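Session log. Operator J.P. requested a structure for one protein chain; no other inputs attached. Running the standard single-chain path with token output.
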Amino acid sequence: MDYESKQDHIRELKTPDIEVFRNIYNDREYRIDMEIPEFTAVCPKTGLPDFGILYLSYKPAEHCLELKSLKEYVLSYRNVGIFHENVVNRILDDIVKACSPRWARLHGDYNVRGGIKTRVTAVYRRP
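Structure written below.
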């Protein structure tokens, strides 16, 4: 089966905005760690739900992520047919776009599907 065209829309996928707030400690380098234990999307091949845990770590610069909007953003993937690799990279892109961190890492740890456990990690470093 050809999967090439199944994910072409992912980079242009419309998602809710991730809101931010001003980091009043931007003179200090520190790290924020988040765990999103109920991430759900859809397998683009089978149409069945994929479940996983997203682990986000980032070092804020001028802005921090606002949690309610991040939750709504993550929930928007619930009915999206998307490969694990594309989930992690797209979400990291949107986090970087929203808050321009010094550094960010997103790790997706998916439940077993078809006898295979998938973990995907993407890292952003400010140039």
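Operator note: The mean pLDDT is 94.
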